[in-house]
């Protein structure tokens, strides 16, 4: 084999290995990517049906129902609501009227089945995307009431 052919084979093999590595990294990144949706976005059908995502908002007052380790509650953005069920131990800061982000999938019945629940840790803090979504929902509600 001529040195020129060896060099071409090495470069071709290196490009193939680099392409395979890039494919595997991008595939792993896509499978671990989790999007955030508000209850209004879920009600309008923007949320994926068979994929994990996060829903965020406030826990509606009087909506928490416990049955051993299974907890059902309602997350609202002051316009729309989503029923959430979770089996496990909730964070200490989880309360009615407080902010929450739940990660899971939308069930066939339209209820959200959470695999993880995160509670807001401070009165004054809310993730920027959650705050922006809540502000948009409130503005939309104001516009609808003015009509």
Summarize the helices and strands and which ones pair or pack.
Blueprint: H1 3-32, E1 35-37, H2 39-43, E2 53-59, E3 65-67, E4 70-76, E5 81-87, E6 99-106, E7 112-119, H3 128-146
Parallel strand pairs: 1-2, 5-7
Antiparallel strand pairs: 2-4, 2-6, 3-4, 4-5, 6-7
Can you walk me through this structure?
The chain is of the alpha+beta class and 147 residues long. It has 2 domains: 1-33; 35-146, OB fold (Dihydrolipoamide Acetyltransferase, E2P). Helix content is 37%, strand content 29%. The protein contains 3 helices and 7 strands; from the N terminus they run αβαββββββα. The protein has helices at residues 3-32, 39-43, 128-146, and strands at residues 35-37, 53-59, 65-67, 70-76, 81-87, 99-106, 112-119. It has a 5-stranded mixed β-barrel with strand order 2-4-5-7-6. Strand 4 (70-76) and strand 5 (81-87) form a beta hairpin. The longest helix has 30 residues, at 3-32. It is elongated, with a radius of gyration of 22 Å. The termini are far apart. The mean pLDDT is 85.
